[in-house]
């Protein structure tokens, strides 16, 4: 369990997240993921990173129960920092990052895939931000990289999800495959990138980040400021408590 790395030739590093039961990451999990991605990118032998997950879905965001159990706001501050560092690590990784997504991709998962370079998804993959229902805000920055502006707003306000096929139609998901073909498809695409001249690919990643129209790090940090404001007023505490008490978490995964 946790985050592990495996290496495939030529220069493909696979970072796998495995936090049962639904890959809702605790504070330590976000920092661990950030460190794994940064470490992979810092290795001069790495040519591409594949980000994937085990279990029922790719990522269910933050561990709401961990935050709800904290009598103060220490865990909230820490998990916000952890998410920021993990998203930043993916975006600033000096080599391309391919996200291989299956099942649900929610909350913080959107931050990860929205900051990755290529998304390959299985037929069962769904993408969404249930933040409003949890008394939080954030990752609209990253959802806006996956769907058009008005679709993003509708999804953000309602918490509705989009399918892998819908995102493929928008052009943000490169390929949709059967679940059992996902890993092979991601590794195959990674091998195509890894076969290019490594120095050129690293320069290409830097140049693409340099021409991005939105500073994703600053934009996401701005969103987080509203989450802290909602917590200071007590609104978020009540939303999280209701979320944990009413068992919405289990229901969400069953419908994803």
Essential attributes:
256 residues; alpha/beta; 2-enoyl-CoA Hydratase, Chain A, domain 1; six-stranded mixed sheet; three-stranded mixed sheet; 9 strands; 51% helix; disordered C terminus; Enoyl-CoA hydratase family protein; Ech1-like; Enoyl-CoA_hydra/iso; ClpP/crotonase-like_dom_sf
Sequence-ordered SSE layout with sheet pairings:
Elements: E1 2-8, E2 12-18, H1 27-42, E3 48-53, H2 64-68, H3 74-92, E4 97-101, E5 104-106, H4 108-114, E6 118-122, E7 126-128, H5 140-143, H6 149-158, E8 161-163, H7 164-170, E9 175-177, H8 182-194, H9 198-210, H10 216-232, H11 235-245, H12 248-255
Parallel strand pairs: 2-3, 3-4, 4-6, 5-7, 6-9
Antiparallel strand pairs: 1-2, 7-8
Helix pairs in contact: 1-3, 3-10
Q: Provide the CATH topology.
A: 2-enoyl-CoA Hydratase, Chain A, domain 1
CATH superfamily: 2-enoyl-CoA Hydratase, Chain A, domain 1
Overall pLDDT: 93
Put simply, the count of helices is 12
- Helix residue percentage: 40-55%
Extended strand count: 9
Structural category is alpha/beta
Straight-line distance between termini = 22 Å
Which H/E pattern describes the elements?
EEHEHHEEHEEHHEHEHHHHH
Shape: globular
CATH class: Alpha Beta
